[in-house]
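Running this now, will post back.
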Amino acid sequence: MREFKVLLVNCNTMLDTLITAGIGMLAACLKKEGIEVKLFDTTFYRTAEITGDEARASALQVKKTDFKDLGIIPEETDVVEDFARQVAEWKPHLIGLSSIEVTHPLGVRLLQAIRDSGIPTIAGGPYATFAPEIVIKEPAVDMVCVGEGEEALVELCRTLRAGGDITAIANLWVKKDGKLYVNPVRPPIAMSQLPYQDWSVYDRRRFWKPMGGKISVTGTFEMNRGCPYTCTFCINSGFGELYDKHGGYYREQDVDRLVDEMAEKKAAFDLAYVYLVAESFLTTTRARIERFGQLYQDKIKLPFWVEARPESINEDKTGLLRQIGCEGISVGLESGNLGLRKNVLGRNIEDKTILRAFELLKETGIRVSANNIIGFPGETREMIFETIELNRKIQAHGVMVSYFSPYKGCTLRRVCELEGFIKDDAIANDYRLGPSMDMPQLRYKELVGLHRTFPLYVKFPKEDWPDIEKAEADTPEGNALYRQFAERYVRQFMS
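Update: finished.
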């Protein structure tokens, strides 16, 4: 077999260091095929004014951490120039861009910079999957991968290396000789058939991740893919539709295989923390959680973080979490308005179920965060205060609040486009940094003000609310009040 080299491009948001399981898996699959792989990573370049972690810390959602303490600072060189230089020096046979909606414009700039090289390019990831007709129009993009990339990318490389016809490869949209070839999506791969992730392609700085106010060497592992639920605000609803004729997208990894990989990576990378990719960790059988717990305690014994749905939380499962050594759990509350949850978000959960879930978690001693989202289409200020009131009853350790970002793939994106809140080809904003929409019932500035004061309304007594409302405003008086409240908040709740 002749030499074949692939340059993977992880177009990432600035200093979001948590490694992605997808890149490691693609690298492993390609190397198994005898293909050379390198990674160009934008993580450590100055591509934004503020990082997501900094935004969340300034909005009182996470404890402030500083990568400078570890000597990690953004590169001063230009990301596009460095990318073009690496392409010219290494001369790959294929360039594979992996991006999300937020970072796709930067990914396009990178590909445009090397367009004259003649090297074929392929774009993949959630945005490419759910907006292929937009992505393929870019002259610097030759192919788009719709859906999972492991098998499709390997088949593409194998075919290119052999000089074969690439126009009929499942999952791919291919431009060739002025024509566009659109191929169907292949069935999802069984997770147990996947190799262990290859983390050697990553800069070792990528493993330092802030979690719970500490920066630890953290590993990411897929416990499952997709989600058994179909919330309209999440792109997993789109994956469910995409793979509907194949029986759906949700799959679980074999627990024994999962823990064996964790043990290997723990030893090789000196892991101190585990980030489990599972949209709803407890939505599975008790036997599976119990088996995971037994193996995890025997072989890993590291603090780990998971996500859960309120209706999946019961006394039995919270007891198992405590025994296993779960350090942090985020629970999706999303909205305190039952009508919005049920009729718009696809989450038919009663308040009593949510309250009971948080009561059970309080007894475990696990660090608990309540995940909230504001700025849904049709949502009003009054509805957001219902969410605040529900959080006040819960009193979780962490109060997380995100802007609703109508990313391509989520069902609500279509609603937002039909209502004229966002254009078809518009890029939705980072859910941590700002709103994507300016709606008549909830203007942009008002949503920004509610976002920054949300934790204050949740934690402070109601006699403070008139001043907190003033602190919503981006004015000298409002900003001064916000700083005073923020200092008090940090002292009382984040020390």
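The mean pLDDT is 95. More later if anyone needs it.
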